[in-house]
Structures are given as structure tokens and as C-alpha cells.
Amino acid sequence: MNLVERFFGELTPFIGEKSFASTRELADAIITFLTARNDNPRRYVWKAKGEDIFRKIDAARRALNTQHNSISETPH
Questions:
Q1: Do residue 26 and residue 54 come from a single domain?
Q2: Confidence check: pLDDT of 74 > 60
Q3: What does the pLDDT look like over 49-68, one tens digit per residue?
Q4: Strands, E assignment, the chain
Q5: Are residues 2 and 38 in the same domain?
Q6: What is the span of the domain harbouring residue 7?
Q7: Which end of the chain is more exposed for a tag (fewer CB within 10 A), N or C?
Q8: What is the DSSP letter of 1?
């Protein structure tokens, strides 16, 4: 799980059961969440190994190159 997923995993229960009449109300709820979280901060600790991260980056690059090559080979 990456840091963004973890952040939204914590935010979702806070706002998930509520209904908002406007984006302003939603933004205010998110700010309230952030304020409460900042009052009692907890570090996000990166647990992935560097080798695993590089392996995933390489796999993503290969997948993108394969996709790009198959698109460029399609007649237009």
C-alpha cells in the first residue's frame, strides 16, 4: 500500500458516511480531518524494499513500452 492509498484509507471512513450539499462542504470536512490528524500526527513509514520498488518500476516501463509499440504498429 502506498502513502496516497493509506491517506485515502484514513480519510474515507471520516467522510464516507456523510452527505455533502456542495463541494465546499466536502472541502471543509477534509480540512477538519486534516486539522484533527495534525493535532495528533503519526508518521507514515515506508516499508517497501528498494529492490521491490525498482522491480515494479521496470515492470511498469516494460508494460508501457509494449502498449506504446502495439499502438504505433496499428494502421491509422
A1: no
A2: no
A3: 889 989 999 999 999 988 76
A4: none
A5: yes
A6: 1-45
A7: C
A8: -
